[in-house]
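User: ok so my PI wants both of these folded by tonight, can you help

Assistant: No problem, let's get them done. Here's the first:
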Amino acid sequence: MHIAIAGNIGSGKTTLTRMITEHFGWTPKFESVEYNPYLSDFYNDMERWSFNIQIYFLNKRFLDVVEIRKSDKIIVQDRSIYEDACIFAPNLHDMGLMATRDFENYSSLFSLMVSLVQAPDLLIYLRSSIPNLVANIQKRGREYESSIRLDYLKGLNERYEAWIESYKDGKLLIVDVNNLKFQENPADFSAICDKIEAQLHGLF
């Protein structure tokens, strides 16, 4: 079974992935940001590296989904393949940070890849305000994230909300991380786990 956790930068995807896999005894599939050869360059010069980084993420995410579907385990994926094409690439294109020919090339490749894989059995979306995202980004203190532009985060958040509004590919659970502090509050985490079990009940 495939569960994917979606959300903007700093929304808490990795933390929730770790917590629920430990709680349920499931298998995590983390996003390997530390080993991305383009990430630091991208945040310093988005226009130059936008296409490279999106192709890198798309390739990694596609390989992850293929691997997940071959497994007989319940796997929780930190970020879905859809976010690259529905959120990040269009946002870069609209901001003038990705050339139209690159965006069209990327979109064509995504359409091919996504036609070959199944959607997650459950998508968990972490909804967050911009101030909450910024606070979380500052708290974790990754050097390459220190230059993230505020307008970039805002654009991503708007696209996330539009995407979730129209998401029809499978079961969806929305978690408002502005009000549910699952990392600090055991009751909030327990409430999320109860909702996950309720969503998955019909899958068994």
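One down. Here's the second:
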Amino acid sequence: MGLVYADVELINGFDLELARRYMIGEEEVKRMNVKMLVDTGSIMLAINESIQEQLQLPVVEKRTVQLANSHIAEYDVVSQVELRFKNRRTMCNAIVLPGDSEPLLGAIPLEDMDVLIHPTRQELIVHPDHPYFAQMKMK
């Protein structure tokens, strides 16, 4: 199977909350569409510094991360990133990779949105057993 990419909308969750409280207008909510590598071997969402700057996501902590090449480094973690894919959404933290590194859509947001990789079409799809809303397993 080849590489799978998905078009995902990333939104500043803090802005969304301010808009819900009518403290800013909906047009002021920082958002962007990003083509992300769907990486089931990655645990979290990973964005790059360019995305973090454009969305103005606040750094909440630093975390030591082991990359696919076994290199271990410390990276910033930002909070309150809302992801939207088709009729699914989730809110999560994201690791901030340096520069214009390729953004990764990891296992936690994939599970939370209840989406799957279709192996034949090599694309991200909503779970066919739950097409209208995400379903989670609690056991």
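The chain has a mean pLDDT of 96. The first strand starts at residue 5 and ends at 12. Good luck tonight!
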